[in-house]
Amino acid sequence: MHVLATQLATLEEADAAVDLGQSPGEVVVLSFSDSDLSALAAAWREEADVLPTLRLASLKKLRHPMSVDLHVESVLAHAKLVIVRGLGGLDYWRYGFEHIGDAARERGILFAALPGDDRPDPRLAAVSTIAADRLARLDAYFRAGGVDNLRQALRYGASLIGRDLDAAPPVAVGPLSTIGDPADDSADGRPRALVVFYRANLMSADIAPVTALMQALDAEGLAPRGIAVSSLKDPAVQAPLAALLAGRRPAIILNTTAFSALRDDDTTVLDAADVPVLQVVLSGSAREAWAESGRGLAPADLAMNVVLPELDGRLLTRAISFKEEAAADPRLEFGSVRHEPVADRVDYVARLAGTWAKLGRTPRADRRLALVLSDYPARGGRTGYAVGLDTPRSVVEILKLLRAEGYDTGGRDWRAADIEALLAGDAEHVDIPAAALPPNLQQELDATWGAPATGFRLPLLRCGKVTVLLQPDRGTPADRKSGYHDMNVPPRHAYVAVYAWLRESERIDALVHLGTHGTLEWLPGKALALSQECWPEVVLGALPVIYPFIVNNPGEAVQAKRRLGAVTIGHLTPPLSAAGLHGALAGME
To answer: How far is CA 532 from the centre of its chain?
Structure first.
């Protein structure tokens, strides 16, 4: 059979037929989990002189039936023991499980088909050729996980094929572990940050992105602590984690685990901290695939690390690491796949965590806010239009609410007429300088809009420490409607300058974008998991965003959530009332 060899299979390449190019080994282990495979490789190296020869491979590379056929023919059929640990049961990889089971029965090979979670699977046991007690013990080693337990699993497997080796029973590891020195943050007054990640990453020593993130948080003035969990939904995790949250009282939580953690009462264990939870993505794809993708993340990452965590109310940040395959160990004919952090993405997430923590610790009277009004193209040229909102009255009500909550709004009662004057241009104007950008981004702006002016005039309304302004046009007035959602054309110089001025001169703590919808979330760049050259990040920086959004437009609200990391606050549609009849229709009635 002639199939092209491959290196690292991304999720998009899952159906390609590949030849792994391995020679036979006495023991073969296949798993969907890169953590399993990395830990097995490390465990085998510790006792390579006494353990049988070992071959390891990822099931992600063996999804095509031709790939399975070739691997069975060239490697598995010559093994003495084959262990396959799937995810999702028999149906996830039915062809492979059944084909290996048939070959094992035909050739007298020991075959253990193991579930990828903590639940026994009778259908996998049925395709196995190993006795039930031995299958259960192998399963227990993998469930316990970690290099030490998997080294004992290899010793036990060796004993099953005739090697004179003893194996200690599996040692269960607690469902929750911590990294970082608690003494580092006990008395220095820094806001505390919790970084939640999977215990499997800790046990396979695959925590480079977590370590990098904790170092970056420390550099931002936060006191980080890493929390390794089996799962946020594991009942054994929830009690100790709740106690830790109560005792530590974090200012911010950064979560790297996937899926939703909602319980039956629609709460999660992290809710008890009553602080923002930032969702941080450890991507399962290669960095090259992300860099070249306009989508940003593969479908599996999107589902597991974005869509389902949104159900918990987590705020999406960035992908800070990607899978990278190391050079193959010639003895194993296998290269471990590990998470490799991307420094600028790690730094961005740490800065964002720092700004959210600062917002929470700053007294309300000292918080500086920008209230930016949408200016959606409306019939009749209505300035400051937001779908379903009376914008001037909404601003007044927000200012009243802020004042009642202790914010500095200028010590006076604002009226809708004040906002209407701003929208008409009859307001204070300030001079703002052009923004300083990296050369490549500056060249992109210049190529689209020409050289920038030396400065710009911005109308605004100062309400104490709350600055109210109209979102500037991203393009020219002539193409406002057609260019509003254009994700190919960068914003003009003045647009970039306004947001830079808010960040750097006004030093705002948060941005409130009022109403459906603005243009910031529609600037060019990736759909999510943005890079440092995506225009929403270039313009906004690492600012907290609060975004009142009409409830009947969730599709565009998602754009703000995923590209700006916004807290979207739903507001109702305007109430309906009877219009009545008038004129000729009234007479007819």
So the answer is: 16
